[in-house]
Amino acid sequence: xxxxxxxxxxxxxxxxxxxxxxxxxxxxxxxxxxxxxxxxxxxxxxxxxxxxxxxxxxxxxxxxxxxxxxxxxxxxxxxxxxxxxxxxxxxxxxxxxxxxxxxxxxxxxxxxxxxxxxxxxxxxxxxxxxxxxxxxxxxxxxxxxxxxxxxxxxxxxxxxxxxxxxxxxxxxxxxxxxxxxxxxxxxxxxxxxxxxxxxxxxxxxxxxxxxxxxxxxx
Length: 218
Ligand code: ADP
Ligand code: ADP
What we know:
alpha/beta; six-stranded mixed β-sheet; three-stranded antiparallel β-sheet; 7 helices; 33% helix; binds adenosine-5'-diphosphate
């Protein structure tokens, strides 16, 4: 369970994230909808400690991210900025991440299988297509077998097969009881994946509702 309370981020006199309070619950896909520039990425970066809030807090299972002893075992994220070391193979990229986070190295082959990259595991990731890079990012998020997974605009730029694969993966992870939080600027995409919807605009919370209710009211 993720809990945001009054989460705020200011850049100079611009308020990118404005007093956001909501919860993200386990066992379902929660969509995070808002137009480009609404503050979704900034919010997600603060959720995994890559950015410091100006105000408010994020709690992961009751704790601040910085107090999680082994964060990748609690929460895994696919954020666009999370680039891999291009000169390393997919396998070695994940191996380094496993070793520096005390994750059993046997997980590396498991997650490469899960994302369908086992056949190219020894290839340098800089030669990867966008879709393969996305799969590698997802593999890194899954590495610690976390209960919480966050995906920032995961289907952007992917072909229909890749989009279909990511949607199914998120649903499967949710059906295993995990907490899935996924952002998009497209309502059409959210309608196909999310069970619950958080809508923001200009950093502010606009709606926090089940998908069924949202569709009925709009
Ligand atoms: P979204 O992910 O919904 O597209 P972002 O979180 O990327 O939105 O951005 C929210 C707002 O914060 C935008 O107006 C953006 O320009 C601004 N912003 C994001 N990061 C920075 C930064 N490092 N410095 C200044 N402004 C930023
Ligand atoms: P950098 O390569 O920019 O130094 P790190 O890999 O050290 O970044 O990660 C910075 C922070 O983000 C760390 O606290 C780390 O635990 C967290 N982090 C990195 N990758 C992920 C991920 N896939 N999911 C969740 N948190 C991550």
